[in-house]
Structures are given as structure tokens and as C-alpha cells.
Automatic annotation (TrEMBL):
This is Ribosome maturation factor RimM. Pfam families: PRC_RimM, RimM. Binds ribosomal protein uS19. Belongs to the RimM family. Residues 7-86 form the RimM N-terminal domain. It comes from Fusibacter paucivorans.
């Protein structure tokens, strides 16, 4: 598993005192609130200390320690924010998984047939979709709902699904 992974994207500034608007990639965006440090795309291994986080209109407003002016944070616009897996797991009180853990998982049917590999997970308002790359390279989508997804084994890199006619190309 990767040591760090993206948990959101800096999409804009908020005000003039160094707050950044974050589009979160998690179903529990306030987990970011409990973090002490983040990494920012393009900044190498530099840890940025989180000074404050709050929710605002479905987004997060993030303030970093030592950045008190809008001019200082402009270079971060449209960059991904990364978190350390160990930090997130330390505050995680549920047995869950992250999208980064699902990429590359084999998709097999309840009959045991391997039909492809998770290429991406698309997040939509109704439900997430697994973008699956079939053996022939064609992409197809499986809704992430209990009716289709029967088992997720992150450690074994395998997701078992109940297929119905019309889901595969």
C-alpha cells in the first residue's frame, strides 16, 4: 500500500488571509480536520502543518500554519493534497478502505471468473462506480451497491461482484 495518497484538491482561495478551498475526495471530509500535516503536490516531501479546517458549503476551508496572506498560497491552486496513510489510519474508527486501495484490484464474478481490473473509482451523487478495464481493454462500469458488489478484499486485491446482463460490453 502507498505511504501517502490524495485526499482532496485545492480548488480556490477563500478570503485574503491564506485559507484554501478544498474539494475533498473522501466520504468523511472532516477526517482531514484531525490531521496535523499534509503534503501538497509539487512541494516534494515538505510537510505543511494544518492550522485549521472547517466545512463550508460542501467543501473544506484549510488554513496552513505560517501562510497568512492570499499571495503566499496562490502557488498551491489546483494542486492535490496528500495525507500520510499512518495518520489517517490512526484517526479512522471504522474498518474501511480508500479508493487508492481499490485501483488494480481484480474483479471476479460470484462464479469465480475474473472479468477485469479496477481502473478507477468514479464518485457520483447517487453511488460510486467502479471503472473496470476488461481483458480486451474495453472499459465498463459497475455501480458500487450491495446488489452488485458482494465482497471487497483489499489485502487480496480482489472484489467479488454479482453480474447481470448488460453490465459488461
Amino acid at each position: 500500500m502507498t505511504e501517502t495518497f490524495s485526499m482532496g484538491k485545492i480548488v480556490n482561495t477563500h478570503g485574503v488571509k491564506g485559507e484554501m478551498k478544498i474539494y475533498p475526495y473522501t466520504d468523511d471530509p472532516l477526517k482531514i480536520k484531525a490531521l496535523q500535516y499534509i503534503l501538497i503536490e509539487g512541494e516534494g516531501e515538505t510537510k505543511h502543518q494544518v492550522a485549521a479546517v472547517r466545512e463550508h458549503k460542501g467543501m473544506l476551508l484549510l488554513k496552513l500554519q505560517g501562510y497568512d496572506d492570499i499571495a503566499e498560497i496562490m502557488r498551491f491552486m489546483q494542486k492535490e493534497i496528500y495525507v500520510f496513510r499512518k495518520d489517517v489510519e490512526a484517526i479512522d474508527d471504522e474498518d474501511g478502505h480508500y479508493i487508492v486501495d481499490l485501483i488494480g484490484c481484480e474483479i471476479k464474478t460470484t462464479d469465480g471468473e475474473v472479468i477485469g481490473v479496477v481502473n478507477d473509482v468514479l464518485q457520483h451523487t447517487a453511488q460510486d462506480l467502479y471503472e473496470v478495464k476488461g481483458h480486451d481493454g474495453a472499459l465498463f462500469y459497475i455501480p458500487v451497491v450491495d446488489a452488485f458488489v458482494k465482497d471487497i478484499d483489499v489485502a487480496g486485491k480482489c472484489i467479488t461482484v454479482q453480474m447481470i446482463e448488460g453490465l459488461m460490453p
